[in-house]
Fold:
Amino acid sequence: MTVKSILNLKGGGVTTGDPSMTIAQVCARLAEQKIGALVMTDESRNVVGIISERDVVRVMAQVGAGALSDTAGSHMTKTVITCRKRDTVDEVMEMMTRGRFRHVPVVDDGELVGIISIGDVVKYRMAEVEREAQHLRSYIATA
Ligand code: AMP
Structure:
């Protein structure tokens, strides 16, 4: 299964943010959208960073509540690992495992076209395991 087939099921919507927004605004957006990360883009919608709930927790632990008025740009991860629609879900799982992150934006021809979270990957794997079990059950029943 490819990233494209997951996006066909969940859609290509991505909640983005601007590096000039504050950490307080990042928290509000994450809570409001019930998501774990915001992809940061510039005015041309190029991906320039990512900030996740894990970054917010780190900043609060290291700096404290005073950092709520800092810009997202000063605490986001600037080197973002992305995938393409044609990549396989296994490849994305490998990226997440190797990089120890749970979000991978999808970029095709320089355009942000979706995001895959670890939740999407787990959902895909569960459906796949269920399909395999079903296949085995019908094999045994007809053997
Ligand atoms: P997460 O597990 O997605 O909450 O992110 C854990 C850490 O990895 C945070 O510091 C994020 O900013 C960073 N991160 C999340 N996704 C990516 C990504 N696709 N590429 C690089 N860093 C990421």
